[in-house]
Every structure is written in structure tokens, then in C-alpha cells.
């Protein structure tokens, strides 16, 4: 009786234990072979997430957090149209311990193999697949990183398609058949003698003789990461989640997270006229694990990577190589601008939209100059109204071939630079600005010297005034600007080059006016005087000479 | 004749013997020829260095400037040539003063009514209206025209040239707009002088005749007859080529003259040196402004 009562008590206690600790029951269920549950669920669904999140290694990408919250503990299954089903639970501790897991140091997140467009919840149904086709499709993700091997098994080289008919057994072998999916083992494990049991088991099952199990090791010694196929999803598996960083040997820490959406709205993204660029178009070293960079600092890497832009943008690169930025870089100034300093790297907007972006770009390094420019008549119009006519930095300095503006060459050519706009009738008429400015400058002593004579030897330094000597360099104002226009203190302007100049001296400048009765009438009259005297003299003397020739012609 | 040789070493005797058609007659004394040579050289250089600046767009101008070593060199040559021209002008004024006050020659260069008649008759003769050419004096109407053209031109060029050379000094007593006016006048006056020389002078001394009297000092009978018939008659009648002054009188006047002239000459020299070094019009090298160009933003702008 006592023994019988004790037996009942134990049974009840065990039953109660099971009742109050449902996890134990689930643990029992999940340990059961999947086949046992095939008939339990008819449609694809996911069970409610368990109350407690699985413990996560620190380095888990945050998207994995979302995956893990459901797939770590669920009795849901995927049911394929063929009627086959697949449990969606993942052995997370097992995965973390696998060769791809968080503890391996070569962590491939969930999205490394499962395409991101399947993340959306609820996940789209696996239409058109049966279980085997799903295994084959997933195995294709392996060859993003790994060279297919043991290709004696027909099929998984993905070069000619998957053809079971080519197999002696009628069964083609894909990656996951041997390696499993989430619990892939590393190369060392495959070197162990026990590993051949994987081969042997299968060969026994299908009845094909395993001729030389030892040959396996020859294949796994090399080429495991010899990438055959590349795709952005693979890269984004690691680089998609935010907050990822890498540390350069010198301690520079840079973000290596890429915002895929922002990339695709940039010029290299989906809207690219040519084609959307892949990560590997610029980052060639896509083998995983990545081989170490041969640079010390983040800046060195930027400079190195900028070289790659030339592959597609050769004319721009050639221009850049002729620039003073490239010259400074060649001299060892690593602050000198490279392609990506102005254009950006992953998020490259059209560089001139809005137009003010151009000068804002230069501002990143030349902020003091920009501040002056922003106050100028040109800069103010650009920044306030995105004026399409005023020069930004590049109209004067060039785009990629930004030259040294302190040379005699730049100085000698600068009047024509200004004239490019200021002698343009159509452009200037919009602002009621005289287009005589260039011609009257060239008519003047300064302008004649610079424009005509130095043009024959443009590298010859000149001390003659050019436009910017009087009007300012970046801080160009209207000449009648009450604060700092040159009309207010023309003498001061003259004195920059003519230190001895006194009050009358500045009147010697004709103010870009053509001489007329209104502007400089004396000069106008002198011109008229000679316009009469010279032809009259020529006519008079010519007449005398003519009569003399007439006399001689008659032989007198 | 002895008298003449005493005062001028280079006079050749009248060709008293032989065919008068091959005779040569004294026309210019050595110092006048040197004066002319000075003017010829300086004027030519001034034209070659000046006219390209008046017509800078012409390829010929640019070739000339390039050949002469660039615009700065051209301007330097122009100024040195100007100094030579000014010194020649000073010398001319001094010798003119000598002839006026020491030798008390007549002012034969002044134009008068006869020059008007000569001009009229020359044209009439050339056109075949009258049969005989006018008989003209040592300096005919054309030569007087040239002489006064040079006087006028040189005066304009020296005054405007000084203003252009020393604009800061000039604007201390002139309005500023005189400087571009001076530049305009300087340039057009040069054109006027150059075309006059080419049309009139070069025609008369190179084309019409090969007149070498400014180099040899003497003129052939043929040209004398044609252009200076009155002077030829006077010389053939035994007239002196140069005015003869009694030595005692000459010596007395000379004493005064040289005293004054040496002072004037020294002052003129000082004036020229002063002009050359009068002012530093402009700084030699355009000021280099040093800027910190690399001033990166602490936080990137949008």
C-alpha cells in the first residue's frame, strides 16, 4: 500500500512538474525527429516567441536579434507546396558554436545566407519550391564564399545546372547534404577520421561504392573561400546592420556599416545610368575572411581607395592628377583632397545639386575662404537664391584640375576668366552690368600689358593690376557697395600698388567707361583732334607727294 | 674761304673747277649731322618700341615686343631712347641759342609768305600749270614744315611722356584724368609723326632723291638746283655757306654763351636724371597674400 501510494505520489509529482514547467515538454518535443511533426502543421506559421530572449553574444548584428527572437525557440514549420515541411527553429547555441557562429570569430549573420528580402514579417511563402529545391537554392549561398568542391558529385558546381541524372546514384549532392546548414563544421573537424562517416553513411544508403575516402582531405585543404560569385546581399549580411566598426592599426576606428537604401539613392545606386554598382566593384578584396589591409590609417585607406574611381572616371582622374590637390598629396600632404573627400564614398549625391553644394563641398576644407566668398556678391547670390549665373568655386578654380591660383599664369589669365562672364552680353544684361569692363580694361595700360603682352609669355610675373587686385579675390563686392565697394576708397585701392599716390591719382582710372563727352571729355576731344589731324596730314602730304610723282612721270 | 675753314673743319670748297653739275655744296655742319643722327636713331627706336604699344593687337607688334625681350624690356628701351631724344633736344636748343645769340644768324626756319607761294608754285609746277618751278631758299617750305612738326611733336611727346613716366608726380599738380589723356595724345602723336616721316621725309630723301647730305654734309648741284635754287645762286655768287663773324666779336660772345650754356646744360642733365629717377610709380612685385587655405570645418556642412 505504502509502495503503491508512493508510486502514485511520484507519478503525480512528475505530472505536476510537467504541467508547471512547459519548457521541459517543449524541450522534449524539439528533441524529437522532425518527421514526427510533419503532419501537425498544415500551413506555414510561426509560434509565439518564447517569453525570454535567447542569450546573445555581444557581436550579434541587431537584425539577428529579430531573427533570433522567433527562430530560437519555436515549433513552427515551413510547409512547402509539395506538402513537405521544415521546422524553422534554429539551434542557436549550436549555430553560435559552428564555423559560421558568433563564437567562431568569422561570424556570418542570418542575412549572410538568407536573403534580406525574406526578412519582412510575415515572410513570403516559398512558392514553387519543394524541400529539396530549397536545399539546393540555399546551398547556392555557400558558393558566394566557398569554392564548390568534390564536384564528382554532379550538380553543385552551378555551372551547368543541377542534374541528378548525371549522378551514378541518381542523387546529386549539394553543400548542406554533407555540411548541414546551421551547424557547419570547420576544416579541422573534417580532417578527423570520423568525418568520413558522413560520406560512408550516404554511400552505403545509395549503394555507390566509396572508392577512396582519404581523397576527401585533398579537397578541403585549399580553396575553401575561393569566391566564385559575389552579391551585395552577402556583404550586407555583415555590413548592413548599423554600428559596425573596424579599427586600423594606428587606432583609427571607422564605421563599416552601410545603409543600403542610402547607397541606392546615390549616383552609384539603382538609379545609375550605367548599372548599379556592387560592393565588389570598389572593394575587390571580397574574400572572406577579408585579408588584412596593407594600410596603417583610415586616411591611407581612403587615399588608396580613391585610386579606384579612375577605372570608370578616367578623364576626371586625369584632371585631378594635374591638380594642386594631387601635387600636395604627392608631396606627402595627406590632407589633400581625393575623390571621395569631395564626392563621398558610399553616399554620393550629384555634386552640383543644388548648385551651392559645389561651394559647400570646398568649404569642408577651405572654410575661411568660403566665409569670404559667402559675403561676396557672387557667394551671397549663390547661397541665398541658388543663382544659376554666379560663379561657384569651380568656375574660377576648375573642377578636378584645380590649379595653383598663386602662379603668374593664373594671374595673367585671370582677366579672361572674369571676362568669360562679364563680357557676355546675354548674361550681364540680366543684371544690368556693363560688358565694356573687359575691353576698357584692355584699353588701359594695366590691361594692355597683362592681356596682350604677357599673353605671349604667360608665365612671366606681372605687377600690373588684374581684375582681382582692385575688385577683391573672394570678397568681391559691388563697386558701389557703401561698405567696402572700391568706389568708396579707390585711392586706397590704387595705393596698394602705387604707395605714393595722392588724391588726384585715382582719377587717372577711367572707371571702365569708354571716353565720351560725359566720361572723360578731354580724352574724347584729344581723340577727335587726332582723328582729324592725322588723316588731314596724310592727305595733305600724300597730295604733295602725288603731284611730285605726277611731275616725274611726265619726265620733268 | 679761309674764314670758313677756321670755324668749320668739314667744309668742302666749292667745286670751282670742272663741271658745275658735278659740284657739291656745303649744307650741314658736322654737329648738325650728329644731331640728325641722334634724332634718327632715337626716333626709330622710339617708334619700334612705342608703336607696338599703341597697336598691341597687331601680330607684328607682338612679334616686335617678343623679339626685343618682352614688354618690360621694350618699355625700358623706350625710356632710354627718350632720354637720348631729350638730350638731343637740349643740344639742339643750345646750338640754336649759339646761332641766335653768338653768331646772330637770321632765323631762317621761321615760315613766311614766300613759303606759301613756294608751296603753291611747287604744286602748280608739278601739275603742269606753270612752266618754271619756284626758286627756294636753303630751307624750303617742306623742310620748314618738317622742322616745326618735329618741334611740335617732340614737345608733345616730352610733356606727355613725362606725365606717363611720372604719373604720381604729375597728378600732384594735374587732374588725374590727364594721365589717360596724355597716353592717348602720346600714342596718336606718335602715329602722326611716324606717318609724316614715312610719307613726306622718306619720300623726299630716299625716293625722290637719294639725298645723303645729312651724312656727308654736302648736296649735289642737281638737288640744289631743284630744291634750293636761291641758295645755289647765292653760293655760286660767292656767298658764304655760314655766317661769318669777326673773331674778336665771336670770342667775346662765346665767353658769355658758354658760361650760360654750361649752366643750362648741367641743369638739363640734372633734369633728365631727375626724370629717370623721379618716382617709384608702382611697387615692383605684386603683393603676395598668404592665406591659410586649409581650414577644415569641425563639423561637415550639409
Describe the overall structure.
The complex is a heterodimer of chains A (about 550) and B (about 300). With about 550 residues, chain A is mainly α. Chain A contains 28 helices and four strands. In chain A, the strands form two sheets. A two-stranded antiparallel ribbon of chain A has the order 1-2. In chain A, helix 18 (about 355-365) packs antiparallel against helix 19, helix 19 packs across helix 20 and helix 24 (about 435-445) crosses helix 25 (about 445-455). The longest helix of chain A is centred in the last third of the chain and has 33 residues, at about 520-555. Mean pLDDT of chain A is about 75; it is low at about 10-60, about 155-160 and about 215-230. The radius of gyration of chain B is 26 Å and the shape is elongated. Chain B has a single domain, classed as Transmembrane di-heme cytochromes, Chain C (Fumarate Reductase Cytochrome B subunit). Chain B is built from twelve helices and two strands; from the N terminus they run H-E-H-H-H-H-H-H-H-H-E-H-H-H. With about 300 residues, chain B is an all-alpha fold. At the A-B interface, helix 19, helix 25 and helix 28 of A face helix 3, helix 5 and helix 8 of B.
Which regions of chain B contain 5 or more consecutive residues with pLDDT less than 50? 1-17
What's the oligomerization state?
A: heterodimer
Low-confidence stretches of chain A: 9-60, 156-161, 214-228
CATH architecture of chain B: Up-down Bundle
Number of strands of chain B: 2
Number of strands of chain A: 4
Shape, per Cα inertia axes of chain B: elongated
User: β content of chain A, as a range?
Assistant: under 5%
| Share of helix of chain A, binned | 40-55%
Summed up, the helix count of chain B is: 12
Can you identify the CATH superfamily of chain B? Transmembrane di-heme cytochromes, Chain C
Strand content of chain B: under 5%
What structural category characterises the helix and strand content of chain A?
mainly alpha
Please trace the helix and strand order of chain B, writing H or E for each element: HEHHHHHHHHEHHH
Amino acid at each position: 500500500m505504502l509502495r503503491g501510494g508512493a508510486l502514485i505520489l511520484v507519478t503525480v509529482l512528475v505530472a505536476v512538474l510537467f504541467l508547471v514547467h512547459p519548457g521541459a515538454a517543449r524541450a522534449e518535443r524539439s528533441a524529437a525527429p522532425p518527421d514526427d511533426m510533419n503532419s501537425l502543421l498544415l500551413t506555414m506559421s510561426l509560434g509565439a516567441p518564447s517569453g525570454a530572449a535567447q542569450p546573445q553574444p555581444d557581436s550579434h548584428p541587431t537584425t539577428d536579434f529579430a531573427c533570433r527572437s522567433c527562430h530560437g525557440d519555436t515549433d513552427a514549420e515551413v510547409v512547402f507546396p509539395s506538402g513537405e515541411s521544415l521546422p524553422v527553429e534554429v539551434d542557436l547555441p549550436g549555430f553560435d558554436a559552428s564555423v559560421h557562429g558568433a563564437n567562431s570569430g568569422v561570424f556570418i549573420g542570418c542575412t549572410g545566407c538568407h536573403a534580406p528580402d525574406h526578412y519582412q514579417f510575415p515572410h513570403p511563402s516559398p512558392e514553387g519550391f519543394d524541400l529539396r529545391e530549397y536545399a539546393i537554392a540555399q546551398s547556392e549561398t555557400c558558393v558566394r564564399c566557398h569554392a564548390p568542391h568534390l564536384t564528382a558529385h554532379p550538380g553543385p558546381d552551378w555551372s551547368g545546372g543541377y542534374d541528378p541524372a548525371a549522378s551514378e546514384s541518381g542523387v546529386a549532392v549539394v553543400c548542406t547534404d554533407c555540411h548541414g546548414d546551421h551547424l557547419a563544421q570547420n576544416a579541422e573537424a573534417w580532417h578527423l577520421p570520423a568525418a568520413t562517416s558522413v560520406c560512408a553513411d550516404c554511400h552505403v544508403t545509395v549503394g555507390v561504392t566509396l572508392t577512396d575516402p582519404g581523397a576527401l582531405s585533398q579537397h578541403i585543404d585549399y580553396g575553401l573561400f575561393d569566391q566564385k560569385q559575389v552579391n551585395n546581399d552577402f556583404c550586407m549580411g555583415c555590413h548592413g546592420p548599423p554600428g559596425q566598426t573596424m579599427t586600423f592599426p594606428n587606432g583609427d576606428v571607422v564605421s563599416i556599416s552601410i545603409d543600403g537604401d542610402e547607397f541606392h539613392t546615390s549616383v552609384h545606386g539603382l538609379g545609375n545610368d550605367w548599372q548599379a554598382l556592387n560592393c565588389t566593384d570598389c572593394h575587390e578584396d571580397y574574400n572572406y575572411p577579408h585579408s588584412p589591409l596593407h594600410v596603417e590609417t583610415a586616411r591611407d585607406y581612403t587615399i588608396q581607395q580613391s585610386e579606384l574611381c579612375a577605372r570608370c572616371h578616367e578623364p576626371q582622374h586625369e584632371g585631378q592628377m594635374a591638380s594642386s590637390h594631387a601635387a600636395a598629396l604627392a608631396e606627402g600632404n595627406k590632407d589633400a583632397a581625393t575623390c571621395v573627400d569631395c564626392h563621398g564614398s558610399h553616399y554620393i549625391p550629384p555634386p552640383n545639386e543644388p548648385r551651392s553644394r559645389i561651394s559647400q563641398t570646398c568649404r569642408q576644407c577651405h572654410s575661411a575662404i568660403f566665409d569670404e566668398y559667402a559675403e561676396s556678391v557672387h557667394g551671397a547670390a549663390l547661397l541665398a537664391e541658388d543663382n544659376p549665373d554666379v560663379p561657384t568655386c569651380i568656375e574660377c578654380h576648375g573642377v578636378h584640375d584645380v590649379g595653383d591660383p598663386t602662379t603668374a599664369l593664373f594671374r595673367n589669365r585671370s582677366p579672361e576668366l572674369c571676362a568669360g562672364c562679364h563680357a557676355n552680353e546675354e548674361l550681364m544684361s540680366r543684371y544690368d552690368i556693363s560688358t565694356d569692363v573687359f575691353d576698357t580694361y584692355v584699353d588701359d595700360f594695366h590691361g594692355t600689358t597683362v592681356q596682350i603682352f604677357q599673353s605671349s609669355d604667360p608665365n612671366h610675373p606681372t605687377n600690373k593690376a588684374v581684375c582681382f587686385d582692385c575688385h577683391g579675390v573672394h570678397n568681391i563686392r559691388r563697386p558701389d557697395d557703401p561698405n567696402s565697394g572700391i568706389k568708396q576708397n579707390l585711392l586706397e585701392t590704387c595705393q596698394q600698388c602705387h604707395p605714393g599716390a595722392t588724391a588726384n591719382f585715382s582719377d587717372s582710372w577711367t572707371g571702365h567707361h569708354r571716353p565720351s563727352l560725359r566720361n572723360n571729355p578731354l580724352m574724347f576731344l584729344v581723340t577727335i583732334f587726332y582723328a582729324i589731324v592725322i588723316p588731314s596730314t596724310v592727305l595733305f602730304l600724300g597730295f604733295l607727294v602725288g603731284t611730285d610723282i605726277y611731275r616725274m612721270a611726265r619726265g620733268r | 674761304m679761309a674764314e670758313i675753314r677756321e670755324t668749320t673743319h668739314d667744309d668742302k670748297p666749292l667745286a670751282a673747277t670742272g663741271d658745275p653739275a658735278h659740284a657739291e655744296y656745303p649744307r650741314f655742319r658736322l654737329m648738325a649731322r650728329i644731331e640728325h643722327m641722334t634724332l634718327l636713331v632715337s626716333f626709330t627706336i622710339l617708334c619700334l618700341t612705342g608703336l607696338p604699344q599703341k597697336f598691341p593687337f597687331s601680330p607684328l607688334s607682338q612679334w616686335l615686343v617678343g623679339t626685343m625681350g618682352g614688354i618690360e624690356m621694350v618699355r625700358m628701351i623706350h625710356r632710354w631712347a627718350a632720354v637720348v631724344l631729350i638730350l638731343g633736344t637740349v643740344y639742339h636748343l643750345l646750338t640754336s641759342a649759339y646761332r641766335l645769340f653768338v653768331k646772330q644768324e637770321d632765323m631762317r626756319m621761321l615760315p613766311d609768305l614766300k613759303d606759301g607761294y613756294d608751296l603753291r608754285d611747287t604744286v602748280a609746277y608739278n601739275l603742269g600749270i606753270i612752266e618754271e618751278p619756284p626758286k627756294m631758299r636753303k630751307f624750303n617750305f617742306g623742310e620748314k614744315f618738317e622742322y616745326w612738326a618735329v618741334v611740335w611733336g617732340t614737345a608733345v611727346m616730352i610733356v606727355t611722356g613725362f606725365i606717363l613716366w611720372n604719373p604720381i608726380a604729375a597728378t600732384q599738380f594735374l587732374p588725374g584724368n590727364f594721365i589717360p589723356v596724355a597716353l592717348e595724345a602720346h600714342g596718336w602723336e606718335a602715329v602722326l609723326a611716324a606717318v609724316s616721316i614715312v610719307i613726306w621725309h622718306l619720300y623726299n630723301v630716299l625716293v625722290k632723291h637719294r639725298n645723303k647730305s645729312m651724312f656727308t654734309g654736302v648736296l649735289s648741284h642737281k638737288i640744289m638746283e631743284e630744291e634750293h635754287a636761291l641758295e645755289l645762286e647765292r653760293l655760286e655768287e660767292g656767298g658764304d655757306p655760314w655766317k661769318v663773324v669777326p673773331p674778336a666779336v665771336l670770342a667775346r660772345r662765346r665767353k658769355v654763351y658758354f658760361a650760360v650754356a654750361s649752366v643750362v646744360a648741367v641743369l638739363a642733365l640734372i633734369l633728365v636724371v631727375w626724370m629717370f629717377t623721379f618716382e617709384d610709380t608702382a611697387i615692383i612685385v605684386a603683393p603676395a597674400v598668404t592665406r591659410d587655405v586649409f581650414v577644415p570645418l569641425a563639423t561637415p556642412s550639409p
